Amino acid sequence: MAQHASRYGEGVFRPEDRGEDDRIDLGALAYDTVTMDRLRHLGAGPGWRCLDVGAGTGSVARRLLREAGVAEVVAADRDVRFLAAGPVPGLTPYEADVTSEAFAPGRFDLVHARFVLMHLPERERVLARLAGLLVPGGTLVVSDAVDLTTAYAPDGPYAAAMRAMWQGLRDTIGTDVTWVPRCPQLLAGAGLESVAAEIHVPPLEPGSPIGRFWAETWRRARAAMVATGLVDDAGVDAALRCLDGPGFAGLSPGMLTAWGRAAR
């Protein structure tokens, strides 16, 4: 496994840490409905065999089975402890490293990866490999974080913390979101057709799932954030208070989703 990829869970977001599954689920609450609307609009439905890469707690995989009625979802992750709580008909946990040459889960009508490539150092190679897992006419859907607001946000505790988070995660586990606007171009470069994209920015309101997600993320990434010198512990605490403050007008980073189809 590549160096940074191996440190994703070991360095900051460790699955064994108490509450990590809850943090993942807060992101799911913020984005799952948007994801499912897109996957169903692209045709996910009965008879489809699907691969969910970086499946986390399995929220998308379960909704594909329950709401879209797909035939099977192979839920792949480096650590499948959150997928093994109980058997779900049609759901197959697959513990594997997507960066490994041994990653060979089969061929699929739909391959979906959300908040995965942004953490990997060889994302273009991985993306091309995912495209190669499609059956003719199959669809690859990739979502990653895109921050189009923080760089232009007024100086203050929230903006300082968000900038420190991105830099700290890049320094420690290799997370990089600067490439994400190029994702549609990369899909086309992988030979996919009918490439398109959309961006969703969830409301950042006191008590909202996305606000609570960032709060939990900052708590786990605090050491990495402070190490950048862009913020200190008092600054992180001030930013956390901003998230719960009435009238807070900050904008959350969003999610860019891009998709394309394999030739028939």
Automatic annotation (TrEMBL):
Sorted alphabetically, the keyword list is: Methyltransferase, Transferase
The record, for SUPFAM superfamilies, names: S-adenosyl-L-methionine-dependent methyltransferases (SSF53335)
Record EC number: 2.1.1.-
Pfam families, alphabetized:
Methyltransf_11
Per the record's keyword annotation, is Cytoplasm included, yes or no? no
Methyltransferase type domain location:
51-142
**What highest taxon heads this organism's lineage?**
Bacteria
A Gene Ontology molecular function term for this protein is: methyltransferase activity
Which Gene Ontology terms describe the biological processes this protein takes part in? methylation
| Gene3D superfamilies (alphabetical) | Vaccinia Virus protein VP39
The protein depicted here goes by the name: Class I SAM-dependent methyltransferase
Q: Does the keyword Protease apply?
A: no
Recorded hits in InterPro entries, A to Z, give:
Methyltransf_11 (IPR013216), SAM-dependent_MTases_sf (IPR029063)
What organism is recorded for this protein?
Streptomyces cinereospinus
